[in-house]
Write a structure and sequence with these properties.
The protein is an alpha+beta fold. It has three domains: 2-163, Nucleotidyltransferase, domain 5 (2-Layer Sandwich), CATH 3.30.420.10; 169-265, GIY-YIG endonuclease; 279-371, no CATH class. 37% of the residues lie in helices and 21% in strands. The strands form three sheets. It has a five-stranded mixed beta sheet, with helices on both faces. Strands 12-11-10-9-13 form a five-stranded antiparallel beta sheet. It has a three-stranded antiparallel beta sheet with strand order 7-6-8, with helices on both faces. Strand 4 (82-85), helix 4 and strand 5 form a beta-alpha-beta unit. Helix 11 (251-265) packs antiparallel against helix 14. The protein is globular. The relative contact order is 0.09. Residues 178-184 and 278-286 have low confidence and may be disordered.
Length: 373
């Protein structure tokens, strides 16, 4: 569980700034499940350059609640979450300073989308929030206001989670969360799983992925793992200390991500994976290229269901070769080739991935197939 955070301040000397506006979006990895947005009376003047940047004035804040009046709500909405912010060190420092003034020690784990984007989108010209989201075709409103920047950070974070095919983000968090043994009643983990399409990851106490799979009903499948009496299943049950999941919306996306992540992570309890060779020696056969049943060009975008209402998944095919996948919610993101390539998570087109796509297109229905010009 995450709390995506943005704070606007008065400006001024280090550790003397006051909060003027705060937005917190509690995010379960797929959807916002709670939110808190409020102006805050900082009980000090706002620096003129900040007024020009944000549009927030001293007059606007006269009747706003003071920090001590919203502190309890902040504690509650961020409880048992990881704070996510663009330049998290700044927002976290400001929050901790305000709580210290109240005599309260506020501590949360943090993730910084600046650091994550530098690692996962190193080719970006700039990793500032405004320039980065613009380059990715992410729509932003109310820039330099807490809610607008928090929403932009959330959309960026979702894209980064999707690009994190090695699952380093999840594994880092799980490693920090699992100090000592978890409850012996591992069936409780099942209740946290959604009855939806996606991937699930079974972790040991070090946070390592020891098994991953895909299902059209994640909750049902994880329950089967915990109720299986076979010897290998019992060993997996004993070693599993946490289960995480990733909704994909589309079963095609789940199949492709499963194949990619099995090859990258090679979990202990999954069957051994064959060596990966582009095309797998079938570059001129059906398995070697994507060949839609109804024909068409070799540069395609396969559009299918997304993870939530208003979102779509996209599988990019260039010259008949699978290049990667991603999610979008605005048509101009896929109509602009440069933005499309930015939101797509690159993946290696192999004989296996092409076989998955060809078979899926023959027996399943997708939303649409777009020929790219």
């Amino acid at each position: 569980m995450y709390s995506v955070l943005d704070i606007e301040t008065t400006g001024g000397k280090f550790n003397e700034e006051g909060i003027t506006e705060i937005a917190i979006l509690r995010f379960d990895g797929t959807s916002v499940v709670d939110q808190f947005i409020s102006l805050v009376n900082p009980e000090r003047e706002i620096q003129p350059f900040v007024v020009n940047l944000t549009g927030i004035t001293d007059q606007m804040l006269r009747t706003a609640p003071k920090f001590h009046e919203v502190a309890k709500r902040i504690v509650e909405i961020t409880e048992n979450t990881v704070l996510v912010a663009h330049n998290a060190q700044f927002d976290y420092r400001i929050l901790r300073t305000e709580f210290r003034r109240l005599g309260f020690n506020f501590e949360r784990k943090t993730l910084c989308t600046v650091d994550l984007s530098k690692r996962l989108i190193p080719e970006a010209e700039s990793h500032s929030l405004g320039k980065l989201v613009r380059s990715l075709g992410i729509a932003v409103s109310n820039r330099h206001r807490a809610n607008g920047d928090a929403m932009a950070t959330l959309k960026l974070f979702k894209l980064l989670l999707n690009k994190d095919t090695d699952k380093t983000i999840i594994q880092q968090i799980v490693r920090h969360e699992t100090q000592g043994e978890l409850s012996p009643n591992q069936l409780d983990m099942v209740e946290q799983m959604p009855s939806e399409t996606g991937l699930y990851y079974m972790h040991n106490k070090e946070g390592e992925i020891i098994f991953l799979g895909k299902s059209r009903n994640i909750k049902k499948r994880v329950n089967q793992h915990f109720t299986n009496n076979e010897e290998k299943a019992r060993a997996l049950q004993k070693e599993t200390k946490k289960v995480t999941f990733e909704k994909t919306g589309s079963e095609l996306i789940a199949l492709l991500k499963e194949q990619e992540e099995l090859a990258r992570n090679r979990p202990k309890y999954n069957p051994p994976q064959p060596s990966r060779k582009p095309g797998n020696g079938h570059r001129n056969s059906d398995k070697g290229r994507v060949t839609p049943p109804n024909g068409g060009g070799s540069d395609l975008l396969i559009v299918d269901k997304g993870r939530e209402t208003g979102e779509y998944s996209a599988v990019l095919i260039e010259d008949g070769i699978f290049k990667g996948l991603g999610y979008y919610d605005l048509n101009y993101q896929i109509n602009n080739r440069h933005i499309l390539q930015s939101i797509i998570t690159p993946m290696e087109g192999t004989g296996k991935s092409h076989e998955i796509i060809n078979l899926y297109l023959r027996i399943k229905r997708v939303v649409k197939i777009i020929e790219l010009k």
